[in-house]
Amino acid sequence: MTLAAVPAQGGNEARAAIELLRLIDLRGAVVTADALHCSARMAEEITRRGGDYVLALKGNQGLLLADAERLIAGRPTPKAALAVTEEESHGRQERRAARVVRAPGLGRKHGFTGLAAIGEVKRTRVINGKRQEECCLYVLSRPMSANDLLAVVRRHWDVENGLHWQLDVVFREDDCRTRKDHGPENLALLRRFCLNTFRADSKKDTMRGKMMRAGWNDAYLFQLMTQMR
């Protein structure tokens, strides 16, 4: 469910994300974000507000990434400390292996408030006989277990697929050409309100199917609206 949204003025999503965090109580929460938001400022804001973070680490933090890669390479992990999941569906096989390595001093060196560990998730996929491998690193504000890291990363991608994919593909947000005044912000809020409303409905149907039904069935539309009281 979308709880809040703010416009990215000038396309600056990183700044908008920090402004958004100031609207939310982060105590007891784990904030996840892709590499765009992996910054010392983001880490400081999250920890200052009482939250923890799991932030994807890539080349935009080159020095930290290099140190993290050296740390991971120099710390072989016993097989018992690895967390592994395997799935097979619709002709696709996927294996994920995760580990967490404590990183004392790394946060202080790079100015990342609260940085306590580096997480690694290796993903191997076989799709139609073709093998794909990917290794992702994460900065963690607390040294969680490898199983917990896998669960957190999986939930992050559930948000990515369940929110952004729906907005892009079903609501066709990327095709919207509204640019004037507060139009883009208002439409973005309406899309997310509609998405929350459809998800709260227990009827078994696709998101697109619910949208079409609400368009031609006034009784169903009113049912959707009254359930949000």
Strand order of the largest sheet: 1-2-6-5-4-3
Mean pLDDT: 86
Helical coverage, percent range? 40-55%
CA-based shape:
globular
* Uncertain stretches of 5 or more adjacent residues: none
Oligomer: single chain
N-to-C CA distance: 16 Å
The whole-angstrom Rg is 20 Å
Task: Tell how many strands the DSSP assignment holds.
Answer: 6
Total helices: the number is: 8
* Main sheet summary: 6 strands, mixed
Instruction: Supply the number of structural domains.
Output: 2
Order of helices and strands: HEHEHEEHEEHHHH
Structural category is: alpha+beta
Q: Into which percentage range does the β-strand content fall?
A: 15-25%
Strands, helices and their partners?
Elements: H1 13-21, E1 30-33, H2 40-48, E2 52-57, H3 62-73, E3 83-89, E4 92-102, H4 106-110, E5 117-127, E6 130-140, H5 146-170, H6 183-200, H7 207-216, H8 218-226
Parallel strand pairs: 1-2
Antiparallel strand pairs: 2-6, 3-4, 4-5, 5-6
Helix pairs in contact: 1-2, 7-8
Task: Explain what this protein looks like in three dimensions.
This protein is α+β, with helices and mostly antiparallel strands and 229 residues long. A hairpin with a 2-residue loop joins strand 3 and strand 4.
Give structural attributes:
42% helix; alpha+beta; six-stranded mixed beta sheet; 229 residues
Quick synopsis:
This protein is α+β, with helices and mostly antiparallel strands and 229 residues long. Helix content is 42%, strand content 22%.
